[in-house]
């Protein structure tokens, strides 16, 4: 008779948290910054529209301790044309969201992602008028 293999038990993942902040607040600090589902939905709506227009072709997601980044590429393997960033540390000051060009210029920054993403609507209208 063949021996039955042990099937590993699936354990649901819980969000990881780092130890309490050094400031003594006692609240755990998230280990990584990530886009929430609603935020990704807003970004992907704009991305899909631009892909359909033939302007963008690829994207990448990066999540780190300080910020989450959605990078947009015209062609795979190039430097990103734009980066949509979420930096929670700046949420009280300039706003957590920003759109940054390939040259590092901040095109728009704000507290609401939908408002920040409107910079792409303006770019599209400008290219239609000038082209």
Describe the 3D structure.
The protein has one domain (28-130). With 131 residues, it is of the alpha+beta class. The mean pLDDT is 79. It is globular. 26% of the residues lie in helices and 26% in strands. The protein has a 5-stranded antiparallel beta sheet with strand order 3-4-5-6-7. Strands 1-2 form a two-stranded antiparallel sheet. β6 and β7 (106-110) form a beta hairpin.
Q: What series of H and E elements makes up the topology?
A: EEHEEEEEH
Give average pLDDT, whole number.
Answer: 79
- The portion of residues assigned to helices is 25-40%
Structural class: alpha+beta
Describe how the helices and strands are arranged.
Layout: E1 17-20, E2 28-30, H1 37-52, E3 58-63, E4 68-73, E5 82-86, E6 97-101, E7 106-110, H2 113-130
Antiparallel strand pairs: 1-2, 3-4, 4-5, 5-6, 6-7
């Amino acid at each position: 008779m063949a021996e039955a293999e042990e099937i590993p038990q699936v354990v649901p993942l819980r969000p990881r948290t780092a130890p309490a902040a050094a400031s003594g607040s006692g609240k755990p600090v998230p280990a990584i910054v990530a886009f929430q589902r609603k935020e990704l939905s807003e970004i992907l709506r704009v991305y899909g529209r631009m892909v359909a227009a033939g302007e963008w072709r690829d994207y990448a997601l990066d999540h780190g301790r300080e910020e989450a980044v959605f990078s947009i590429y015209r062609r795979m393997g190039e430097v990103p044309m734009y980066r949509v960033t979420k930096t929670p540390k700046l949420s009280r000051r300039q706003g957590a969201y920003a759109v940054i060009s390939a040259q590092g210029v901040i095109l728009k920054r704000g507290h609401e992602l939908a408002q920040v993403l409107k910079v792409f609507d303006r770019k599209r209208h400008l290219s239609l008028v000038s082209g």
